[in-house]
Design goal:
Order of helices and strands: HHHHHH
Distance between the termini: 15 Å
Structural class: mainly alpha
Radius of gyration: 15 Å
CATH topology of one domain: Cyclin A, domain 1
Strand content: under 5%
InterPro entries: Thioredoxin-like_sf
Helix content: 55-70%
Number of strands: 0
CATH superfamily of one domain: putative protein disulfide isomerase domain
CATH architecture of one domain: Orthogonal Bundle
Shape: globular
Pfam families: Thioredoxin_5
Length: 112
């Protein structure tokens, strides 16, 4: 887990992760990544937001958990959307049919 931060990811780490993506694509050709993420997003090394989103999703039903995990992964790897951004997570929650206001509140309550 990478802690909460609004600090941009270092260029060295960005390059390292892109290299990992490229290696995975070479070794597992059916695996796809959208490298536009590195151009269109401001990468941050923070996984807490996505983890909180899963917990907030569970408050609206266990049946949403795996679907939200998949949506977060697809957003990041395939759609070049930043799962560290609140806006992205709220958009994904809406796509799942979750109550947007409840999801937003649940993202930031101390229990989450």
């Amino acid at each position: 887990m990478a802690p909460d931060t609004d600090e941009p990811m270092s260029l060295a780490l960005q390059n390292k992760i892109q290299g990992i993506w490229q290696k995975i694509q070479q070794e597992v050709p059916q695996t796809q990544f959208n490298f536009d993420f590195w151009i269109t997003c401001q990468p941050r090394r923070s996984t807490y937001s996505a983890c909180r989103a899963i917990l907030a999703t569970l408050n609206q039903g266990d049946q949403f958990e795996e679907r939200m995990i998949l949506k977060i992964q697809q957003a990041y790897y395939l759609e070049a959307k930043n799962p560290s951004n609140q806006e992205t997570l709220i958009e994904l929650a809406e796509e799942l049919g979750l109550n947007k206001n409840q999801f937003f509140c649940d993202l930031y309550v101390p229990e989450t």
